[in-house]
Amino acid sequence: MLTLNFTPRKKGEKKDGMLKAVFYGPKQKAESIFVNYIDFQKVYREAGESAVISLEGEGKKYQSLVQDVAFDSVKYIPIHADFYIVEKGAKIDTEVPLEFVGESEGVKTFGGNLVKVLHEIHIQAEAADLPHHIEVDISALTDLDSVIKARDLKLPAGVALYHVEEDEIVASIAVVKEEDLSAPVAADISSIEVEEKGKKEDGEGEVVEEKE
Question: In the chain, which ranges are E strands?
Fold first, then answer.
């Protein structure tokens, strides 16, 4: 489990190199804290909003999730973070990213294109069991008709799909259709005739006889 140290923060207080934050939960009143700015960026890159982080400080430890991060509108750097304290044993539902691994014969041998229909999946698990991601083995896509559905995903122990239909398609193979450039292009004669007629009616294209 990822760890992030915190120190208490007073209202309006600022510290160089420290990010303002707050943590709270169903049975935990909101407390204002500081976390090291660089440490937070490292942890957030790895954990995102789906992995549990151990908040530690003042001799206490809390299992938490990053609930929200506020960014500077110009520099787009974190300026404040919210941590949600998770109760031990409580089930959490969240979305985690899908990581596509392996090699598909449908792509390699038959020339199809891999279509990633879903990029993340909704799951439910206890805090300690939440994975950083779910792997999707595309070697199951053996031909152009193959699909991988939600029920085909190998979920870690203690993890279950949440509000996801088992038949929902996660990945498939798309057939690449080549354009036939050898076929003759039919000219639209009617449009040409209409255009010529219009010119004559407008007085354009009239033949003027030369006087001797």
Answer: 2-8, 18-25, 28-36, 53-57, 60-71, 78-85, 91-101, 113-116, 120-126, 134-137, 147-149, 160-161, 169-174
